[in-house]
Fold Cytidine deaminase.
Amino acid sequence: MAKVEQNLNISALELAAKNAYNNAYAPYSNFFVGAAALTKNGNIVSGCNVENASYGLTVCAERNCIAQAVINGEQQFQTLVIYTEQEKLTPPCGACRQVIAEFLDQSAIVTAVNHLDQQISWTVKQLLPDAFTPKDLE
């Protein structure tokens, strides 16, 4: 994990997501994805998608990114960036949206970027309205 200033430029996260993208394992779909998150402590953590011949065991970049942070003792995040080289910007899948809602505030920003320098951003609440979160277990 890299430590960064609190006033982070999105380009540092985009670079980390792109570097993770380069390590993605996607021999079946050829749909490579990288993700990078900024933790509440100011660290950048990244992950890539890892496919499996048993398709249901594939793990997305966003979930690998968050899991990597948790492994390193971080459980709170400021923002998350997803990088692909698709012509159309790619939002997180439903499973990733649920995991993102577990660890990021509803007002946190998730941004998709691509190799064409396009980007789109959503709040977590926009990605998963009325998410089931730990607060629902209280």
Remarks:
- Residues 1-7 have pLDDT under 50 and may be disordered.
